[in-house]
Amino acid sequence: MSRMRVAMVHSSFTVRGGAERYIRDLTRGLLTRGHEVAVFCRPSPHAEPVDRHVGARLSERAFRLPKLHKVVTHLADLLDPTGLRPRDLGDFAPDVVHVHNWQGLGILPVARLSRAYPTCHSVHDMAICDPNNALGNLGRSGALDALLGLRSAWIGRRLRRTLLLFSAERNRALVRRRARGGRRVPDRVVPLGVVAPGQGQRWPTGRRDTFLFLGALSPHKGIDLLLRAWEAGHAQIDGTLLIGGDGPLRAEVERVAGELPSVRYLGYLDEAGKESALRQAGWLVFPSQGHETFGLACAEALIAGRPLIASAVAAPPMASGGSTLVFDSAEDLRRLLARAAHMPDPEYQTMSASAATDGGRLDWEDHVDAVIGVYESLLAARSASPAREGFPR
Asked: What residues does the Glycosyltransferase subfamily 4-like N-terminal domain cover (predicted)?
């Protein structure tokens, strides 16, 4: 395996979510194998000193009206070619470009990169189908769906020289079904692995009456729904809810934690903090209200042998039915929390064993090897036919 120069391209590290952590973990994994990696992104509070910053788009500098910010941003993602340019990567001279989240950078700059360099794109969300990357706009009206279809067709044409990488067949099928022309974009399923706290060690059995939420404290992650369910049923549940994370609903989380002794807010957790929380909990609650391509917190819980309580719309693809309890509403969630807290030992042990088996398949080293294989196939395809659109599937 020859040494490669890999350019990671990502919109921003303003949010510290699963995609951002994945980029950092993958960068470290490639560096330990002797490859050179540079991360190109917009300036943000959580960027690292070695990151290489790209310029602001012309649309960002020209239109600063707060009421129009979202509209301008979404239009710029489709039409503004400024900001990120291939020459920004020139000094690094990458062999391969690996694009992550492109919203905020724009699809036209990604198309230019794919003409200049062999390029792949990890599909961390559903932005190809819907600017609300959890598919929140689809299905609202026929007219809106038609506009989203035109948008996805425009994006798809700009991605025809980019290999899309999906973490699961379910995600690929969804994009192919929802994005007009999605089947004409080259793609491949590369199952994710994860660097998780306590990976490889034997975890003690969790407490069935202790539940953990890990993630952004925002409505689309379902924390408000979880709080409603807990407030309505905490007496019947007779357990403890641990909440780790930060976000716009932090004040509401702190209010409930102040009123109910059964709710403990842990703040934003580093790796050691997450490991400690997972050791205390017997379940991970994943109440996200939109489609999730992977669910990093779910992967961490499975590795620890913690079964999941997940919303039907966001049930993670790497978790089998034996590892997951699924709900549709706040009332369903309240009943499931009470059932889980009082689940008989044999049933909980069976679910915990199933979760550990699912987690055992999420090997990080195998995933890094698979990504390197993708890079090598991109280089081979470009060398064989520099003008060819598309790559081996």
From this structure: 17-162
Answer yes or no: is pLDDT of 252 > 80: yes
Dig out the tokens for 143 from the structure: 């007219």
Q: Is the pLDDT of residue 392 over 50?
A: no
What digits encode the pLDDT tens for the residues 287-333?
998 878 778 899 999 999 999 999 998 888 899 999 999 999 999 99
| Cβ atoms of residues 198 and 304 within 8 Å | yes
Alpha helices in the chain (DSSP H): 18-32, 58-62, 69-79, 107-116, 142-158, 169-178, 223-237, 250-259, 271-280, 296-303, 330-341, 345-360, 364-384
223 neighbors 253 (Cβ within 8 angstroms): yes
**Calpha distance 24→371 (Å, rounded):** 14
- Cα–Cα distances in angstroms (integers) from residue 296 to residues 141, 216, 303, 373, in the given order: 32, 12, 11, 23
Sorted by where each starts, the structural domains of the chain and their CATH numbers stand as: 5-193+363-384 (3.40.50.2000), 207-360 (3.40.50.2000)
List pLDDT tens digits, range 259-277. 999 999 999 998 889 999 9
Structure tokens at 185: 């974009």
- Residue 299's φ and ψ, nearest 5 degrees, are -60, -45
Quote the tokens at residue 155.
């994006």
